[in-house]
Amino acid sequence: MFKVLLVEDNVDFRHSLNKSLMLCFPAMVIAESADGKDAMVKIDYFKPDLVFMDIKLPDENGLNLTKNIKAEHSDIAVIVMTANDAPEYYRAAYQAGATYFIDKGSVSMEKIPAIVEAILGSKVCH
């Protein structure tokens, strides 16, 4: 069973991402979190294979959360997302341990499944 955690405070974006993933990967189990505190709790008990992490969250910086996740669970892939495509965000995401970086303004929901498959390959259940 393949598990994904969506950490995103924008409920519309989070639900769109969830729907896009479920359409392509019906066997995937998806959990959602709107803030960093809840995300870290879910990381420990849900044990996702992949985390979609927004940079700007109401209570925490997604880059700090990414560092914490990778320090404690190096096997979890993290896709950092932001609405700001500034090069410094891109560099900071990879320095924090991100597996991939997504500019929410320039990537379509249709491309997300291909990104997931590229990162996780045969781990993804269809």
UniProtKB/TrEMBL annotation:
Q: Does the keyword S-adenosyl-L-methionine apply?
A: no
Among Pfam families, the record links this protein to:
Response_reg
Organism, per UniProt?
Methylotenera versatilis (strain 301)
**Which terms are listed as keywords in the entry?**
Phosphoprotein
- Check the record and name the InterPro entries matching this protein: Bact_response_regulator (IPR050595), CheY-like_superfamily (IPR011006), NreC/VraR/RcsB-like_REC (IPR058245), Sig_transdc_resp-reg_receiver (IPR001789)
Name of the protein this chain belongs to: Response regulator receiver protein
Q: Does the keyword Glycoprotein apply?
A: no
| GO BP term (any one) | phosphorelay signal transduction system
